[in-house]
Structures are given as structure tokens and as C-alpha cells.
């Protein structure tokens, strides 16, 4: 049997909502086929790349119509497959009976629909266009901070099914890469759509540096989870590379740090490489950066450095 018997394989996501059962995601599978005298039907299978679970469906073609329509092209639609949001699937289409090499396959990522939004930077608000939902259901939208879970960053706003306006304004205080908006229909265990408008805006993370004069502690407290390495470094001039200080690699806290303008924090993370010099704008007393137990790191021009007190373990 020639491979050209199977013309195309089409996939799309649909959402089914009922007042009794709520909303569920479905995968629609369609195929374009050229009839062949040995073709008796089609089989479509969807395999989850995460769990390796497989669902299969078959469509059989009556023999009488088969003989009359050889060589003609048909559109075939399978019953919907039940899927879940963000699921990665491997879908195959084969003939019945199976012939070696005669199949089509595609990978597919399940989305739960889309939220349309626009960021009003002047007013510091995200304007969300709530989608029309089947079944006349109310809808919720909210802002949240994506950490271990998406934590509330504002109260959810409910849009009723008969609301004249379906645009919601969600104010925010700071543009953060983990600040996301979520939307879901007002049914139990509803699938939630999530979008993060500022996921590429990471500047606020590097500037989240705090200095506590009383304890002389320098800390970095980013509002979003970031994986990587942080260390102190010394930058002799504005365009010079930052020279990492020995034994200064710590998670987020440095006690007993002198406020030298050339003292900087170096970030090597999954979001990129950055250097921030928190004391560059004004000068503070002190000439040494005491960051290791029993020793100080000083600029090359200084020949003496007072011994640092012992540092408690962090």
C-alpha cells in the first residue's frame, strides 16, 4: 500500500463544559485519506510522553462503499481523546490492516485556550479580555506569583456570564518575571489558563539587594525563585571585569561587609550573567570587604587590612 494513502493528520484542542461535570479538555483528531482497495479502516493513537499511557481509536470503513470509492479522498474524524492541560502527546495515524511504513505521526502540546491581555505601563495594570465560554459560565481572573505554587498577588475578579463588559483591569505593583495572570471557569476543579506577561523582565531581580547598616549585612532577596550562583567581586573601574573574591560564594547573605564603591555582587544564574554594585552611588566608611572567616579582601592599593572578626556559620 502506498504511503500517499494517508494525506494529512490534523490535531486541535477543544474544551467541553457542562454545569454538572464542569470543564474538560479534549483532543480532536482528523485525517485526510485516499481510498485504496486494501484499506479497511484507520487507527489513531495518542501517547503521553510523560506517563507513556496510550489511548487508541479505530474507524472502520464499510466494504460496499469502499469498492465504490477507490481513489477518492475522504475526511475522517475520530471521537475526542481526553487530555489534560500542558500535556505533551505523540499521535500516530495508521491503516487497518497495518502496513509497514504507512503511517503519519505528530507531537502535540495541549493548551487550555488563550487569554488576551494588554499591559498598561503608565497605569501599572494588566487589561485582560475574558474569553467567551460555552455553557454561560462565570469566569475568574487573578494575578499570582509563580513560586512553588502560584501565590495570590491580588483578589480574584469574577466576570458573570451575562456581563456587558468582559475586560478586567488587574493592577500590579512591580513587573516581575514570575508575576502571572490566571483565568478559569467557575466550576469545580476547572482547568486554569496561565500567562506571565513579564517573564523576560528580570532587572528587578538583580536590584533586590539590601544592606543593613546595623549588622553590616549585605543580602539578595529576589521576589522570584532563581537558581544559580552568587558571589562578591571587586571591580577596579566601571569598564573593568569584576574580579571574584576568594571564598565569597554564598547563597544570599554576607555579614560584616564594608561599603566599598568597587564591591559588587556577581550573579551567574539560569537567567543570565549580571553584576550589581550597590555602593557605587555614594561612599561609605571602610576600606575592606570582610567576607571570609579571619581575613579581609581589600583593593590592590591598600597594603594593610584590619583583621576581621570570626563570622558565624550561615
Order of helices and strands: EEEEHEEEEEEEEEEEEHEEEEEEEEE
CATH class categorisation of the largest domain: Mainly Beta
How much helical structure, as a percent, in the residues?
under 10%
Largest beta-sheet characterization: 5 strands, antiparallel
| Gross CATH architecture of the largest domain | Sandwich
Which percent range describes the beta-strand content? over 45%
Quick summary:
The chain is mostly beta strands and 314 residues long. The chain is built from 2 helices and 25 strands.
Description:
GO terms for molecular function: interleukin-17 receptor activity. This is Interleukin 17 receptor E like. Keywords: Signal. InterPro entries: IL-17_rcpt-like, IL-17_rcpt_C/E_N. Residues 163-285 form the Interleukin-17 receptor C/E N-terminal domain. With 314 residues, the protein is mainly β. The chain has three domains: 3-109, Interleukin-17 receptor A/B, fibronectin-III-like domain 1 (Immunoglobulin-like, Sandwich), CATH 2.60.40; 116-195, Immunoglobulin-like (Sandwich); 203-297. It has two helices and 25 strands. It has helices at 63-68, 203-206, and strands at residues 6-18, 22-34, 41-48, 54-60, 73-77, 81-83, 88-96, 103-109, 116-120, 125-129, 139-146, 150-152, 157-159, 167-171, 179-185, 193-195, 209-212, 217-220, 228-234, 243-244, 253-254, 263-269, 272-276, 289-292, 295-297. The strands form seven sheets. Strands 11, 12, 13, 15 and 16 form a five-stranded antiparallel sheet that branches. Strands 1, 2, 5 and 6 form a four-stranded antiparallel sheet that branches. A hairpin with a 4-residue loop joins strand 17 and strand 18 (217-220). The longest helix has 6 residues, at 63-68. It is elongated, with a radius of gyration of 30 Å.
Amino acid at each position: 500500500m502506498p504511503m500517499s494513502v494517508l494525506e494529512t493528520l490534523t490535531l486541535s484542542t477543544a474544551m467541553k463544559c457542562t454545569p454538572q461535570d464542569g470543564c474538560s479538555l479534549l483532543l480532536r483528531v482528523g485525517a485526510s485519506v485516499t481510498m485504496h482497495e486494501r484499506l479497511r479502516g484507520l487507527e489513531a493513537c495518542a501517547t503521553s510522553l510523560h506517563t507513556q499511557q496510550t489511548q487508541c481509536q479505530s474507524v472502520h470503513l464499510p466494504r460496499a462503499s469502499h469498492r465504490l470509492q477507490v481513489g477518492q479522498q475522504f475526511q475522517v474524524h475520530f471521537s475526542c481523546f481526553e487530555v489534560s492541560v500542558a500535556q505533551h502527546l505523540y499521535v500516530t495515524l495508521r491503516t487497518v490492516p497495518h502496513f509497514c511504513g504507512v503511517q503519519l505521526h505528530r507531537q502535540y502540546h495541549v493548551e487550555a485556550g488563550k487569554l488576551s491581555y494588554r499591559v498598561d505601563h503608565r497605569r501599572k495594570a494588566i487589561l485582560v479580555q475574558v474569553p467567551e465560554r460555552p455553557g454561560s459560565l462565570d469566569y475568574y481572573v487573578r494575578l499570582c506569583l509563580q513560586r512553588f505554587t502560584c501565590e495570590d498577588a491580588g483578589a480574584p475578579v469574577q466576570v458573570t456570564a451575562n456581563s456587558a463588559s468582559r475586560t478586567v483591569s488587574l493592577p500590579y505593583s512591580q513587573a516581575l518575571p514570575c508575576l502571572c495572570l490566571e483565568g478559569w471557569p467557575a466550576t469545580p476543579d476547572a482547568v486554569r489558563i496561565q500567562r506571565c506577561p513579564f517573564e523576560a523582565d528580570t532587572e528587578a531581580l538583580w536590584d533586590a539587594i539590601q544592606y543593613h547598616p546595623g549588622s553590616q549585612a549585605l543580602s539578595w532577596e529576589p521576589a522570584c525563585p532563581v537558581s544559580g550562583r552568587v558571589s562578591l567581586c571587586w571591580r577596579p573601574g566601571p569598564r573593568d571585569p569584576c574580579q571574584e573574591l576568594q571564598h565569597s560564594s554564598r547563597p544570599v547573605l554576607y555579614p560584616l561587609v564594608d561599603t566599598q564603591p568597587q564591591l559588587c555582587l556577581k550573579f551567574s544564574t539560569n537567567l543570565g550573567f549580571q553584576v550589581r554594585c550597590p555602593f557605587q552611588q555614594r561612599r561609605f566608611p571602610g576600606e575592606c570587604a570582610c567576607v571570609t572567616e579571619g581575613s579581609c579582601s581589600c583593593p590592590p592599593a591598600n597594603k594593610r587590612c584590619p583583621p576581621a572578626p570570626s563570622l558565624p556559620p550561615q
